[in-house]
């Protein structure tokens, strides 16, 4: 691929602020530059003859308007300089191939400014690849060990289609050989697998077995010689092994220009951080290489497991990409780990590792199809943002990665750097694509010091005959002298003249004392003034966010209200126009006008002008009792006075009143008489004029009414009797007719009634007997 020229875009941002730079009271050129990228400093010597010293700091345009020509304006400009740019890829013909352009830059930024530039990254076509296979050799991995005996050969054949510079290495791990992770009896130490009825070597922490090599036969040979070991707990010491494989680069054989892949194979979780405290190991992991002469981790029983943060630092520092090949039961755990490790991926491993080749190849292709930038170094005080310009033309603001990138593709990134404030010194940081060795080195300087400070005029005659040095057009006074031209001494008597009272803060803390007089500091909020800078025009009360309600001026902390306004906040209108009802009364006679609004005082009254009051009587009904009392009484009594006073009303028989202000009322009393009067509101209450009582009805004729009632009762009684008699007669006639009808229908039988007895009876006298009869009876 030919040289790809750098497309550099500079964007200078001059933020707008409220007001000019002179409002911030900068008294030196350096302070002025630090106010913002829009501020400049005038170095003209006699400039302060017409303006105060803080007026030297302003925008370049404002300084020109004040008479400071361009040659005397100190205005540093944000800029960028490319120090090294050799192009991208092999086709540039450069002996040191780089896949990021440019390679080195210098930025100079004013505080508060930002600039944007573009960098380009190319995906290498034939990139060297180093794969270090780090395997868990605990007892549960015995079937996996058998499955990968030919992994070196098959993996090498697959990788040959992607790169001609492939190397492979091997290491293994089990667990820290200490309690409570293993059993420490003599028999268990010699054979940790004795409970499983087979012989295995003692437990070990991490063992480096094969440095990176292009010989697949050596890899297969090493694999064939491995044996599993055993431990007690389920988590293994895999993170110890990852740390040593990352930091022992010389022993592992990592190449500087290669893509470094560390394949971590396990079926269990891993210990990390302070897990080793259970075994009494309390010394933190130091992140150093501790491989002994036998390539075993010598500090496994002395140093804690590394933390995730330590692993991230060392993997990023050494540019190693981690591939977790774990079983499905552990997938979630390692996905959580991978989310914290840049460039790490997770693949699901079959229970016997039969899919390890496909897993490695898919992870490698996934990593090779993505370009992701990472920022290294000290970026404190900087705000960095990215916009990705991917190879397919998509623009993704806020992203620093592109996907689906093929070998040879070039992607671009717009990088915006914003400086918040001044830096203590030059700042160095780097941009690097994840998995790449090439970096862009960026050196950043903050422009917080004016160039005019480099050539001061010591003991300048401009500064009161040599009482100070002239720097950037302003005097820097010697100790003991003060003033714009060092014309005053720091006399205690003069300083006391700048205090409102003994013990008070000099110039109220809002100014400087020059020659016994206070020079008040300008403020972005308004004007500070007064003999002791004790007053300002912005510290008054606010109403709805507006100073003095927007209807007054702030004078030394108090609101001076405009005409037509009153109150502490100047938020009360003195006009009663908004309180006048349709009938001309104030608040419908049911309230008072306060701040141009009605405040209803009559219970139940509501509305903008108190016009609604369902429970209120109208204006004419209110004085009814007072008027009736005066009209009924022949002489005004105390009772009438009490009633009228309670209504704040007085009665007058005069007809001399202002009719335009009067309310004419006509009412009907309980006797059906009509009351009429005129009601006028005054400052002292209501005045009732010309009350009258008329149109009273005549009294009723009681005898005539009584006679009428009696006659009515008599007539109604007679009528009721006649009706009753008529109804009874009708009823009787119906009953007789009914009886006659039933009698006519009756049919009687002619037979003898068995219950009938004749009315004639025959009796025999037993004492009377004839002779013959007696004889015959005896015989």
UniProtKB/TrEMBL annotation:
It is a single-pass type I membrane protein. Disulfide bonds join 29-39, 32-68, 42-57, 193-200, 248-289, 390-402, 422-665, 448-452, 463-475, 472-507, 477-486, 488-498, 513-518, 515-548, 520-533, 535-540, 554-559, 556-587, 561-570, 572-579, 593-598, 595-640, 600-610, 613-616, 620-629, 626-696, 644-673. SMART domains: INB, Integrin_b_cyt, Integrin_B_tail, PSI. Pfam families: EGF_2, EGF_integrin, I-EGF_1, Integrin_b_cyt, Integrin_beta, PSI_integrin. PROSITE patterns: I_EGF_1 (PS00243), I_EGF_2 (PS52047). GO terms for cellular component: cell surface; focal adhesion; integrin alphav-beta6 complex. Residues 725-771 form the Integrin beta subunit cytoplasmic domain. GO terms for biological process: cell adhesion mediated by integrin; cell migration; cell-cell adhesion; cell-matrix adhesion; integrin-mediated signaling pathway. Residues 28-450 form the Integrin beta subunit VWA domain. GO terms for molecular function: integrin binding; metal ion binding. It comes from the Eukaryota. Residues 20-69 form the PSI domain. The chain crosses the membrane at residues 704-724. It is found in: Cell junction, Focal adhesion; Cell membrane. Residues 620-701 form the Integrin beta subunit tail domain. Keywords: Calcium, Cell adhesion, Cell junction, Cell membrane, Disulfide bond, EGF-like domain, Glycoprotein, Integrin, Magnesium, Membrane, Metal-binding, Receptor, Repeat, Signal, Transmembrane, Transmembrane helix. InterPro entries: EGF_extracell, EGF_integrin_1, EGF_integrin_2, Integrin_beta_N, Integrin_bsu, Integrin_bsu_cyt_dom, Integrin_bsu_tail, Integrin_bsu_tail_dom_sf. Residues 1-19 form the signal peptide. Its main location: other. Belongs to the integrin beta chain family. Heterodimer of an alpha and a beta subunit. Interacts with FLNB. Interacts with HAX1. ITGAV:ITGB6 interacts with FBN1. ITGAV:ITGB6 interacts with TGFB1. This is Integrin beta.
